[in-house]
Amino acid sequence: MSLGSTISTNHVKWSEYNESLVRRGEILLGFDVIDNWDKELGQMNKGKTGEPFHYPDTFVLMLGYAKVYFHLPYRQKQKV
């Protein structure tokens, strides 16, 4: 079987392929972090003395995933 015959018999559905390339860049985030924000903070701050937590653990975890996914540095350079 030659390479030419392989290429001619291989049918690519270009519209599906193009759509898969577009979807490859999507990030699917649920709204659970926002929907459960107050509930989670209430549970985290229950019985806590001192300054209450302002951000739930799931939000901090989501930020960590975004950092890894987008290859963000820990600190950005700042112009002085």
Summarize the structure in short.
This protein is mainly α and 80 residues long.
Q: Main attributes?
A:
80 residues; 55% helix
Question: Would you mind describing this structure in some detail?
Answer:
By secondary structure, this protein is mainly α. It has 5 helices and no strands. The protein has helices at 3-9, 14-24, 32-35, 37-45, 57-69. The chain is elongated. 1% of the residues are buried. The model has no long low-confidence stretch (mean pLDDT 80).
Write the layout of secondary structure elements.
Blueprint lengths: L2 H7 L4 H11 L7 H4 L1 H9 L11 H13 L11
Largest sheet: none
| Rounded average pLDDT | 80
Oligomer: single chain
Shape: elongated
Instruction: Kindly state the number of beta strands.
Output: 0
Beta strand %: under 5%
Number of helices, where a helix is a run of at least 4 consecutive DSSP H or I residues: 5
End-to-end span in angstroms? Answer: 65 Å
Order of helices and strands: HHHHH
Low-confidence stretches: none
Gyration radius (Cα, Å) is: 23 Å
Structural class: mainly alpha
Amount of helix: 55-70%
